[in-house]
Structures are given as structure tokens and as C-alpha cells.
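2024-03-11 09:14:02 DEBUG pipeline.ingest accepted 1 chain
2024-03-11 09:14:02 DEBUG pipeline.ingest length=118
2024-03-11 09:14:03 DEBUG pipeline.predict start
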Amino acid sequence: MLVETADAAAVAMRITRAEWAALREADIRAAVDHALETHGLAPWTSMKIELFVAEKEVLLIARPISTPPRRFRFHSFADLTAALGCFPAGLDSDVVYIDGGWELFVRTGDEALPNALF
């Protein structure tokens, strides 16, 4: 594992595919914590991890999150797009297709979301 950067905003690591195959969830958490501590920073209580997989390596980028994302499930893409039409511009979100439905993950406070979603 090679730490590319570690600061208060993000930790980026390059991990070989062989190393990646042997990692467990606790190993990843410990590696991010160690990278932060090595740079004089306290470990985060919650984080978002993005993975970029290449032929020989995985790039892991971890960022702190202050509040966990809200999760909404839609059974059709039409329902998802209809809901997104009600969202404010610039909303920080991710959409993932899981088990026959669309999952929308939103990172914002309740005050920014339309009441219709609740």
C-alpha cells in the first residue's frame, strides 16, 4: 500500500491488486487511520471511500463525512428521475443500481430535501 496523500480533506492510496484481494474491511479502516495519524491528524469517525480499479492497482480515495448519507430506494428509473426533479441544484448525491432497484444516497441536511421524500 502506498499513501499518495493524507490531509484533513482526503487520503489517497495505491494498492496492488494482490494486496487488495487479501484486505478485509478492518484493514482498510486501519490503513486510512494510520495514514492520518502518520501525518499528525486524528482518525475520522465516518468516511466515504471511492475506488478506482485499474489493471494492476486500485486507487482508494477516502474523505471524511460529518453526517451519514440519507438513502432512498426507487423501484423504477422513472420514479428516480421524477424525485430528482424535486431536488435543489447542486445536491451532493450518488445513484447505484442494487438488487433490482435504484438507490439514491444524498449527503445533505433534511432542510435541503423536499418534504415529499419523507
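2024-03-11 09:14:41 DEBUG pipeline.report The beta strands are 2-6, 11-16, 47-53, 57-64, 70-74, 93-98, 101-106.
2024-03-11 09:14:41 DEBUG pipeline.predict end
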